[in-house]
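Support request from a user on the community tier.

User writes: "When I paste my structure tokens into the form, the page sometimes reloads and wipes my input. The last time it worked, I copied everything first. Here is what I submitted, just in case something in the input itself triggers the reload:"
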């Protein structure tokens, strides 16, 4: 009886580990969301490149205190924050006016993660793509499911602000 129970526990443990591992292998390390905004490309780009405007289009966490570097827009601009859920920083490490931005994002003691912004002119205005390169180990990539919603919410907020 004991041996049979032990076999069942071992069997289900292996099934769970195998399922979890294979699930995570099929999730890439990149998350990407896009939106079309009926506004000129220069305006949309400048709203993203100016870190002080992020609080206007991102969801607000009332517990966060944000500090900005002397430069708040474009290449080299940096902001850092502290709140109940933790602290971190974001820096613009690459900027190509009205075409692209690259951000370096650091949460507390974690390794840096990078996000990219691509701006494309369309007939109606601007297509904005925000992608996030997830550097997490494969066994915790399921967290991407939560990050994707954050990107969508941010893009929708940017759309409301620009239109």
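"...and here is what came back when it finally went through:"
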């Amino acid at each position: 009886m004991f041996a049979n129970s032990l076999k069942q526990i071992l069997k289900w443990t292996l099934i769970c580990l195998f399922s979890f591992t294979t699930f995570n292998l099929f999730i890439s390390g990149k998350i990407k969301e896009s939106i079309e905004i009926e506004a000129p490309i220069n305006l949309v780009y400048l709203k993203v490149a100016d870190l002080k405007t992020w609080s206007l289009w991102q969801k607000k966490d009332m517990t966060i205190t944000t500090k900005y570097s002397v430069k708040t827009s474009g290449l080299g601009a940096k902001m850092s924050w502290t709140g109940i859920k933790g602290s971190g920083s974001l820096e613009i490490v690459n900027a190509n006016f009205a075409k692209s931005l690259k951000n370096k994002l650091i949460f507390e003691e974690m390794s840096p993660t990078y996000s990219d912004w691509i701006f494309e002119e369309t007939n109606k205005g601007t297509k904005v793509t925000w992608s996030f390169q997830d550097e997490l180990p494969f066994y915790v990539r399921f967290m991407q499911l939560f990050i994707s919603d954050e990107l969508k919410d941010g893009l929708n907020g940017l759309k409301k602000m620009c239109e």
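Agent notes: The reload is a front-end session timeout and is unrelated to the input. The domain at 29-162 is CATH 3.30.530.20 (Alpha-D-Glucose-1,6-Bisphosphate; Chain A, domain 4). Residues 2-25 form the longest helix (24 residues). Escalated to web team.
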